[in-house]
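Quiz preparation item.
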């Protein structure tokens, strides 16, 4: 009998000493309270993931070296499988080591380095070779790092060399539907090698990325024997029945799979919480308009850090409907959030008076609309400075895609929770959140969306209906279809050309926007890197 703990833990990138302390505490708990013989941690456990250009600093590597010595000295009675960078005369490697009785007895180097989407591993790491087979309590185990199990070569070599079970360290970020994709890939590896796999994944928020955990233990036939919960820390012990021929994993706790909307919502909450907590912000500010986007952002923020650390600011203008202010107050009160009301009429008028000479002879246009948004942005940033709270912007992916937002106005802020959430999904998430408790007024969900920067303004005065817009954006941004392919799919040519032109023209805005949580397969920023200046 062999007992291996899966340590699904939340780490802080660059905090090697803090991460080492977390490893030690977790390992001792698994040893003393759960009777584990070994414990498997996520990829790059000591540095957190992704460490990015911190890896270029010699000081980080010195801390990693000291951290490995500390683990060897401080942990006994349980084997550790930890991830860490390691430097040799051939380069820097993404590595994993088995520590037994105070010694590093085996180390493997990651071979399949992802360099797509959010990953830049070829920028930092050399490509490993060979494979790693070691022993825990007399059982031959193979050690693999994340992407190495997405291809058949590494696992096959380990099994051919005698590995009876594969232990995999991972830092696989969340996007909608990702957990099922992972399980399908690992099921292929387990089945083709007739070898069980224990898969430990990172959990927690790191800038725009969220790691969802969902670690699991899978038997040789591809069936899941045990599964850790999504989007929370967990230490679960997998009991392995060992015979001369094979290893079989006993069935145990299988945390339920979250429905898609719940997983996305909880990922947004975790991403906000960790961004606020890990960066030491005391609280957040949100401009409340009475619209669906700010209502959803408010609910996410409260669920992330508690109502006492969230503050709303309502800034009505001459174009704000009474119902907007009523709904914004209802949202704040239902979530027990302190709010202030600061009308912007006098501020807006002062701007217009200051600009009257320069604007003489010009008709009113979008300029005056943007001034209102910038009045609000200035007020929010002033309160942010004074109260030392970060502003959460409320723009969604549909708006960010086509530039339906104002630089230094509604885009002003430090973090954008729903930046990667298309408008139609915003509505779905609002419905979902109301099934937990009714906090978003139904009128906010039902009424046509409006920026309320001009008389009787509606979003559809400037944009196609959101179901059509989101479908076109999905094909153009996330699936990289060209204009002709989108038109061929049945969408109006004029609409397609207008939308795609807006996407291309507004790259300069997105470069100046705050980062936001990635929940799709193609988010702006890390995933989608297009030139601003382009003749394409």
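Solution:
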């Amino acid at each position: 009998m062999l007992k291996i703990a899966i340590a699904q833990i939340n780490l802080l990138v660059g905090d090697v000493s803090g991460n080492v302390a977390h490893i030690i505490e977790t390992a001792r708990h698994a040893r003393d309270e759960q009777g584990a013989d070994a414990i498997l941690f996520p990829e790059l456990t000591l540095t957190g993931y992704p460490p990015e250009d911190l890896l270029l600093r010699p000081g980080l590597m010195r801390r990693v070296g000291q951290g490995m010595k500390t683990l060897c000295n401080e942990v006994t009675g349980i084997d550790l499988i930890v991830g860490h960078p390691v430097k040799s005369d051939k380069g820097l490697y993404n590595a994993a080591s088995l520590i037994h009785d105070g010694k590093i007895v085996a180390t493997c180097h990651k071979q399949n380095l992802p360099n797509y989407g959010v990953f830049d591993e070829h920028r930092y790491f050399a490509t490993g070779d060979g494979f790693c087979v070691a022993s825990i309590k007399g059982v031959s185990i193979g050690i693999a790092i994340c992407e190495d199990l997405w291809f058949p070569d590494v696992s096959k070599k380990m099994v051919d060399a005698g590995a009876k079970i594969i232990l995999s360290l991972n830092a696989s970020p969340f996007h909608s539907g990702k957990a099922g994709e992972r399980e399908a890939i690992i099921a292929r590896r387990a089945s083709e090698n007739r070898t069980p796999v224990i898969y430990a994944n990172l959990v927690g928020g790191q800038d725009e990325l969220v790691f969802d955990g969902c670690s699991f233990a899978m038997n040789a036939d591809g069936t899941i024997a045990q599964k850790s919960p999504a989007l929370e820390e967990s230490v679960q012990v997998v009991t392995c029945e060992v015979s001369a021929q094979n290893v079989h994993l006993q069935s145990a706790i299988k945390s339920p799979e979250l429905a898609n909307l719940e997983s996305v919502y909880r990922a947004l909450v975790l991403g906000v919480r960790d961004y606020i907590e890990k960066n030491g912000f005391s609280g957040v500010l949100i401009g409340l308009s009475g619209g669906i986007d700010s209502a959803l952002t408010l609910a996410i923020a409260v669920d992330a850090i508690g109502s006492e650390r969230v503050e709303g600011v309502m800034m009505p203008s001459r174009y704000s409907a009474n119902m907007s202010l009523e709904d914004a107050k209802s949202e704040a009160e239902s979530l027990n959030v302190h709010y202030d009301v600061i009308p912007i009429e006098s501020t807006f008028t002062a701007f217009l008076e200051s600009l009257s000479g320069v604007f003489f002879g010009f008709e009113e246009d979008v300029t005056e609309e943007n001034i209102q948004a910038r009045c609000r942005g200035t007020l929010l940033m002033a309160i942010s400075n004074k109260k030392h709270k970060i502003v959460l912007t409320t723009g969604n992916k549909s708006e960010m895609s086509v530039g339906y937002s104002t630089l230094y106005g509604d885009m002003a802020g430090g973090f954008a929770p729903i930046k990667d959430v298309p408008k139609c999904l915003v509505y779905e998430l609002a419905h979902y959140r109301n099934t937990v408790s009714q906090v978003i007024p139904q009128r906010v969900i039902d009424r046509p969306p409006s920026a309320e920067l001009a008389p009787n303004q509606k979003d559809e005065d400037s944009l196609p209906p959101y179901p059509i817009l989101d479908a076109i954006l999905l094909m153009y941004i996330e699936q990289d279809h060209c204009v002709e392919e989108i038109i061929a799919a049945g969408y109006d040519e004029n609409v397609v050309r207008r939308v795609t032109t807006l996407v291309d023209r507004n790259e300069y805005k997105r470069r100046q926007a705050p980062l936001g949580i990635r929940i799709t397969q193609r988010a702006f920023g890390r995933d989608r890197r297009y030139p601003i200046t382009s003749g394409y």
